[in-house]
Design brief:
720 residues; mainly beta; 4 domains; five-stranded antiparallel sheet; 22% strand; flat
């Protein structure tokens, strides 16, 4: 079977993404990867059928995915393998076709394996993938911290752990982290042709940093990718994670081994109290289930409700007790000692509140927060000589004599509206603008009054709103006080504007679409404004912004609405039924410097071939041209714009190893010289192309790829 090598335009987007993640890139060959020396050294991924309990290698039939994305395998020749050593984890996937397009680049697809480390089959935790779409090719190890789409193997991982660039290019940092080698000729079963292995590696250190070690049971599922980012194309079963993961395995310094003892993957623990650690059931060397958890070391007991010293007792011996502390109580009760109580240290006062009677000694003997209160002569009403609320107080012992202590200190309390000088500045209620004019209610219910103190200590309007009455249409008074003038008034044509309002502005109260532009009068944006300044308000102006497009066409309407008279010539039905909606009050919706009407040259509301998109400002600045000579290398002039392409005659041609899909002066594109029948390609109305097929020697995957490339170039030309 003949095979064609295609040249691929590789995106620069991958480089831009990775340049911001330089700390995750492998920039030196510090750890050399050594793949298993022969096929027997690889461990095939196995899966036990949950119904039959039969365990067999994972496989997949040939032909269920195109070309380099067709993963294949059966019990004799398994589809996927795994292996490890002290530095790397290795993956192998059997593909029905060559995955390299040349010596330094893979074909623009992806091949990878997802890894489950928590035993939950509805999600995965890591993705190890070879991305042939990125520029340069990249091997990535990523972490999936949140499964946004349960059970979906195509859920996108969020965190990049490692990236190995240009794995096929000698001398590059990622060289050797992926390779292609022959895999015999075993598939398809009924027409065998050469198969290939794609092998790739990631550093185990990155997994160890994420808490995944040699005793962490792993479940793995592998497949291919159309875009080089997630597993989306060819899996060995349905795209449902619980049905894809293989059996549990352990991968350590000496390699990977099956985990098929009873209970493997179940949660377990070791140690007691603070030494208890969680783990997972794994199989030991004899095949018996054991817990991989290791108990933590005991520590000194502290008062926290935890058995820190792991002796099955909690907080024994009053840990942390007996230390001087502040009890939080006032007076002589303020000091105490710490005591371990209910999992936390508390300060126990040395003297209990009320234990001593108050005396006039400058101390708070009874611990009520007031020193020297209560002795003879204390607590009697007195005058302080201060202003306002601070003018009165009570007598208290001070320095061996009773003094008058004000009930409040100046400035202690904020002023409230109550006729009292609360802040003791000699003025009462000075902050409330009492007597100032105010109003309450709306419409006919509005009433005026003055600000006065209210029961809440603030100031409010003394007026009360009036009572609403039935609305009277046309008097411009909000009689029912609901904030709307003349609501519930007659609207004969049911266009959303009352009859009297339409009469006032010159609209027809019996015609739901006075200007016949396809938009009901009440739905016209800013209906009573003259947006384009042409002397007609928008409800009477079929082109409110003056951009050459009728309002109904811009807003996605046809001309069949209530009141619309299509014969008036003010309405053009929207050709794409509202897919492209522009602003009828904005001449240039996308602000790209070209008006909506100039971009939609046939004024039908749809973006037709050769037209610019009024919602895309980037196409407003197209490079103009009059002929091919005005364009750069590899470009031709089409519809006044320079686009990538060629002409069979009378224009730019192609490189020596390519040929043009055009045989005359019509536009074409350059394709590899060995692609069959390029001169029969032509553009379709909806974008893309059609062409005749080649001989049976041309593989379906490559022919389809070439046709897609032609269609993509034609679409790009049309959108410029």
């Amino acid at each position: 079977m003949a095979r064609i090598q295609f040249r691929t335009c590789r995106s620069a987007g991958g480089v831009a993404l990775l340049s911001g993640l330089s700390g995750l890139l492998v920039t030196t060959a510090a750890r050399a990867q050594v793949y298993p020396v022969d096929d027997a050294a690889w461990m095939p991924l196995m899966r036990t059928d949950p119904v039959t309990q039969v365990t067999a290698p994972i496989g997949d039939a040939a032909g269920d995915a195109p070309g380099p994305r067709d993963a294949v395998g059966n019990a004799e020749f398994p589809m996927a393998y795994i292996q490890s050593d002290s530095t790397h984890l290795y993956f192998r996937l059997r593909i029905n076709q060559q995955v390299r397009q040349n010596g330094t680049n893979f074909t623009p697809y992806g091949w990878g394996c997802i890894i489950d480390t928590d035993g939950d089959g509805s999600d995965y935790e890591f993705l190890a993938l070879v991305d042939g779409v990125a520029n340069p090719d990249t091997v990535r190890l990523q972490r999936n911290t949140a499964q946004a789409k349960p059970n979906d193997p195509a859920d996108s991982p969020e965190v990049l752990l490692r990236a190995y660039l240009a794995p096929l290019v000698m001398g590059q940092p990622g060289f050797g982290y992926a390779r292609e080698i022959p895999a015999g000729a075993n598939f398809p079963i009924d027409d065998k042709d050469p198969d290939f292995f794609i092998d790739w590696a990631v550093e185990r250190g990155a997994l160890l940093d994420a808490g995944i070690g040699a005793l962490t049971p792993l479940r793995i599922a592998c497949g291919t990718s159309a875009m080089g980012d997630v597993l989306s194309t060819d899996l060995h079963g349905p795209a449902h994670l619980p049905d894809l993961f293989g059996d549990f395995i352990l991968c350590g310094d000496a390699g990977c081994g099956a985990q098929n003892c009873a209970g493997v993957g179940a949660a377990c623990s070791a140690g007691v109290g603070g030494c208890a650690t969680a783990g997972t059931i794994v199989c030991d060397a004899s095949g018996q289930p054991v817990c991989n958890a290791v108990a933590a070391q005991p520590s000194v007991e502290v008062c926290d409700g935890i058995d820190n010293d792991c002796d099955s007792e909690t907080d024994e011996g009053n840990p942390g007790g007996g230390v001087a502390c502040s009890s939080g109580l006032p007076g002589i009760c303020a000091t105490g000692q710490t005591v371990c109580v209910e999992n936390a240290l508390a300060c126990h006062p040395s003297i209990a509140a009320g234990e001593y009677t108050e005396t006039c000694n400058g101390l708070d003997d009874d611990c009520n927060g007031i020193p020297d209160d209560g002795p003879a002569g204390g607590g009697e009403p007195c005058t302080t000589g201060l202003l306002g609320a601070c003018a009165t107080g009570h007598t208290a012992c001070g320095g061996g004599a009773n003094t008058c202590v004000p009930a409040a200190a100046p400035g202690e309390h904020a002023d409230t509206c109550n006729g009292v000088d609360d802040d003791c500045d000699g003025q009462a209620d000075e902050d409330f603008d009492l007597g100032a004019a105010c109003a309450v209610g709306i419409g006919a219910c509005a009433s005026e009054g003055v600000l006065a103190c209210d029961a809440q200590g603030g100031a409010s309007c003394s007026a009360a709103p009036g009572m609403p009455s039935p609305e009277s249409c046309g008097d411009a008074i909000d009689s029912d006080c609901d904030g709307n003038l003349d609501n519930d008034c007659p609207d004969t044509d049911d266009d959303g504007l009352p009859d009297h309002t339409e009469v006032d502005v010159g609209a027809d109260p019996n015609d739901a679409d006075t200007d016949d532009d396809g938009v009901r009068d009440g739905l016209e944006p800013d209906w009573d404004e003259d947006t384009d300044g042409d002397g007609h308000i928008n409800v009477l102006d079929p082109d409110s912004d003056g951009d050459g497009l009728f309002d109904g066409t811009e807003t996605g309407f046809d001309c069949s609405g209530p009141g619309t008279d299509a014969s008036a010539g003010h309405c053009t039905p929207d050709a794409d039924s509202g897919v492209t909606v522009t602003d009828p009050l904005d001449v240039d919706t996308d602000d790209g410097s070209v008006s909506d009407g100039d971009e939609d040259t046939d004024k039908d509301g749809a973006v037709d071939p050769g037209e610019r998109d009024p919602l895309d400002p980037s196409d407003d600045l197209t490079t103009p041209c009059a002929d091919d000579a005005r364009c750069g290398d590899g470009q031709i002039c089409v519809d006044g714009a320079c686009v990538d392409g060629c002409r069979g005659e009378g224009g730019p041609g192609c490189a020596s190893d390519e040929q043009c899909t055009s045989s005359g002066t019509e536009p074409g594109v350059c394709v590899p010289a060995d692609v069959v029948a390029p001169h029969d390609a032509f553009a379709l109305a909806g974008g893309g192309c059609a062409c005749t097929t080649g001989s049976s020697e041309d593989t379906p995957g490559r022919t389809a790829w070439a046709l897609a490339a032609l269609g993509a170039l034609i679409i790009r030309r049309k959108r410029r």
